[in-house]
């Protein structure tokens, strides 16, 4: 009986965390460049139940028993968000559709809508994703899909959080006083131009080959603890990545699906709650009534 109580309690904790993840997605539905988080649940290791102590039958296996579930991790989905036109020259959006070839067949990998592919051996391959390279106030390189930038009084291109936007050489992009933002243009490869003339500055766009190695750092940016493990490289000419000026990428949260997931988590939480109440009443009866007899 106590085992069932613990199983129901683990289910409640799992559904609570799942519910928190969904509400976080809904709260950021209007956040530029936000990537939806998905909770991954996993069952506790199964236990083998055996009958022991019978001298005539010996040890007999009855079957397996599962003892609960827990949230293993929350994985972001880096699928492309919808673009919204703003008309501002300092707003930029990335359109990333990088493909990979299957090493075994040489054919393009058919990624699913979430940018994931599972091989026959169970290996998970993620679609590479492109990000703007920025530098925080501590001098650390971060990555973001939020391209709502502005130009400060010194001519530096910055994010809304004040982070410096980097070029392809890793230096901060600084426009001169004679280069107003209204005269700034950018081509699809990220090369900056002033009044139609190239200024030999390319916006720093990094391709993360294994985006599952990214960690959220708040303020719409991601950090990487091991760049080699994440497979970070500079944007190449043959990469299917485009920069759109005057647009920002919206959140990729599916509001309708999020509402369904939130209601499902709430119903599952209530079901586990009722099971705990049932076990509580059963234990109360066992102590107060059966024990008295």
Topology record:
Layout: H1 2-27, E1 37-43, E2 47-54, E3 58-65, E4 69-76, E5 83-85, E6 92-96, E7 116-118, E8 124-126, E9 129-135, E10 141-144, E11 149-151, E12 157-159, E13 164-165, E14 184-186, E15 191-194, E16 197-202, E17 205-208, E18 214-216, E19 221-224, H2 227-230, E20 232-234, E21 241-245, E22 247-249, H3 255-290
Family: Belongs to the flagella basal body rod proteins family.
Domain Flagellar basal body rod protein N-terminal: 5-35
Domain Flagellar basal-body/hook protein C-terminal: 244-288
Name a few traits of the molecule.
about 290 residues; alpha+beta; 3-stranded antiparallel β-sheet; 3 helices; about 25% helix; about 35% strand
In short, what is this structure?
The chain has helices at residues 2-27, 227-230, 255-290; strands spanning 37-43, 47-54, 58-65, 69-76, 83-85, 92-96, 116-118, 124-126, 129-135, 141-144, 149-151, 157-159, 164-165, 184-186, 191-194, 197-202, 205-208, 214-216, 221-224, 232-234, 241-245, 247-249.
How would you describe this protein?
By secondary structure, the protein is an alpha+beta fold. It has 2 domains: 2-71 and 254-290, no CATH class; 83-99 and 128-249, no CATH class. Helices cover 23% and strands 34% of the residues. The chain has 3 helices and 22 strands. The chain has helices spanning 2-27, 227-230, 255-290; strands at 37-43, 47-54, 58-65, 69-76, 83-85, 92-96, 116-118, 124-126, 129-135, 141-144, 149-151, 157-159, 164-165, 184-186, 191-194, 197-202, 205-208, 214-216, 221-224, 232-234, 241-245, 247-249. The strands form 8 sheets. Strands 9, 10, 13, 17, 18, 19 and 20 form a 7-stranded antiparallel beta sheet that branches. Strands 14-15-16 form a 3-stranded antiparallel beta sheet, with no helix packed on it. A two-stranded antiparallel sheet has the order 1-4. The protein is elongated. The relative contact order is 0.20. The model has no long low-confidence stretch (mean pLDDT 84).
């Amino acid at each position: 009986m106590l085992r069932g109580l613990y199983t129901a309690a683990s289910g409640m904790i799992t559904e609570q965390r799942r519910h928190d993840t969904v509400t976080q997605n809904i709260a950021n539905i209007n956040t530029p460049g936000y990537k939806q988080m998905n909770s991954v649940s996993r069952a506790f290791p199964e236990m083998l139940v055996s009958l022991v102590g019978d001298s005539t039958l010996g040890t007999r296996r009855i079957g397996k028993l599962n003892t609960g579930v827990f949230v293993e991790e929350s994985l972001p989905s880096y699928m492309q968000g919808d673009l919204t036109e703003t008309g501002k020259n300092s707003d930029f959006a990335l359109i990333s559709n990088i493909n990979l070839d299957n090493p075994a067949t040489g054919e393009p990998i058919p990624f699913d809508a979430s940018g994931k592919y599972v091989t026959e051996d169970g290996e998970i391959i993620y679609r590479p994703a492109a990000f703007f390279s920025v530098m925080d106030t501590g001098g650390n390189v971060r990555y973001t899909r939020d391209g709502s930038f502005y130009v400060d009084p010194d001519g530096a291109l910055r994010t809304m959080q004040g982070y410096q936007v980097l070029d392809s050489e890793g230096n901060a992009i600084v426009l001169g006083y004679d280069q107003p933002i209204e005269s700034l243009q950018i081509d699809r490869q990220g090369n900056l131009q002033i009044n139609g003339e190239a200024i030999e500055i390319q916006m720093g766009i990094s391709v993360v080959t294994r985006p599952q190695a990214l960690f959220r750092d708040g303020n719409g940016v991601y950090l990487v603890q091991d760049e080699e493990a994440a497979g970070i490289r500079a944007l190449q000419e043959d990469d299917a990545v485009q920069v759109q000026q005057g647009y920002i990428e919206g959140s990729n949260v599916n509001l309708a699906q999020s509402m369904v997931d939130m209601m499902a988590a709430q119903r599952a939480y209530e079901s586990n709650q009722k099971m705990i109440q049932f076990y509580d009443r059963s234990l109360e009866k066992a102590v107060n009534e059966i024990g008295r007899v």
